[in-house]
């Protein structure tokens, strides 16, 4: 199947949530997925999980919609490759130990190599 690369650069809950929605859906139908976060989008990969504190998490749960916590677990189970942009980490003053377990640190070249001739989405 065609690989899917998702570039998450936007701040906040909504782009992070939808990046996970797209990533898990694509992986569930057998597509290889690489989720690459940079700058403000790196909040999704932080060990302290600041996006889980967003009020939208509770709202989504109340409405029967999977939130970031549920989708992040599914992403791990589905084998989605997660890459934190090394330059974006420097720009945001984020050190590697601040990232969640299993998140790689690499650059754009690694991301583009992982996606190859596949599709790219940016949020």
TrEMBL record:
Domain of life: Bacteria
Gene3D superfamilies per UniProt: DsrEFH-like (3.40.1260.10)
InterPro entries in the record: DsrEFH-like
Protein name: DsrE family protein
Species whose genome carries this gene: Roseomonas populi
């Amino acid at each position: 199947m065609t690989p899917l690369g998702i570039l998450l650069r936007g701040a906040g809950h909504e782009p992070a949530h939808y990046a996970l929605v797209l990533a898990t859906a694509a992986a569930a139908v057998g597509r290889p997925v690489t989720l690459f976060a940079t700058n403000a989008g790196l909040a999704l990969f932080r060990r302290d999980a600041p996006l889980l504190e967003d009020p939208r998490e509770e709202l989504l749960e109340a409405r029967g919609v999977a939130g970031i916590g549920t989708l992040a677990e599914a992403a791990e189970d589905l084998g989605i490759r997660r890459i934190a942009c090394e330059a974006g980490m420097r720009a945001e003053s984020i050190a590697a130990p601040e990232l969640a377990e299993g998140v790689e640190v690499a650059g754009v070249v690694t991301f583009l190599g992982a996606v190859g001739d596949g599709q790219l989405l940016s949020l």
